[in-house]
Amino acid sequence: GAGVSQSPSNKVTEKGKDVELRCDPISGHTALYWYRQSLGQGLEFLIYFQGNSAPDKSGLPSDRFSAERTGGSVSTLTIQRTQQEDSAVYLCASSLREAADTQYFGPGTRLTVL
Amino acid sequence: GQQLNQSPQSMFIQEGEDVSMNCTSSSIFNTWLWYKQDPGEGPVLLIALYKAGELTSNGRLTAQFGITRKDSFLNISASIPSDVGIYFCARRGGAQKLVFGQGTRLTINP
Lengths: 114, 110
Known about the structure:
The complex is a heterodimer.
Chain A: E1 5-7, E2 10-13, E3 19-24, E4 31-37, E5 43-50, E6 65-69, E7 75-79, E8 88-95, E9 104-105, E10 109-113
Parallel strand pairs in A: 2-10
Antiparallel strand pairs in A: 1-3, 3-7, 4-5, 4-8, 6-7, 8-9, 8-10
Chain B: E1 5-7, E2 10-14, E3 19-24, E4 32-37, E5 44-49, E6 55-58, E7 61-65, E8 71-76, E9 85-93, E10 97-100, E11 104-109
Parallel strand pairs in B: 2-11
Antiparallel strand pairs in B: 1-3, 3-8, 4-5, 4-9, 6-7, 7-8, 9-10, 9-11
């Protein structure tokens, strides 16, 4: 079966522009997570969706970051007015249920802000 | 106290050598997870540990949950080229999210 897919795989943008990153989780997985991985760093939690519950946004670094999950499936992470420090790999993961240790990660979107 | 400290940050070894890396924290946790990230890919779960003192193997990989519940180590025996990558320890940060260490980058010299 298909794993978690993300698009685009690479995104280069100019400072100040908005970007949208997409995640297609594994079919049937109710939990979806976004993480950010800066160069040479570990993964930093951004936001979590579980079913129809309100998302846990506690990891979003600023109000320029937002995410939505439509129909309990596809998720979009939006970064407004991008800054150079936003450059990183953005990873999406899904799991069959909440609080699952086995999170299945997508390949990530590498964002470069010039 | 919530951070995970991994060491070493990087390793350069010869094929066939054994590898050992560890992860420590000043806080007690009930779960330790080890993930591996191949270049250009997302992390993949290798081993999950749930009990202090637990020793778990997955092929050539062995991981242990420290007795103090503040540390864990991962060993790889007889390394092969496909072991190259970044190894992360992780723990539960609340009910949902995972908190990751900074990673240990493993390079195998031909």
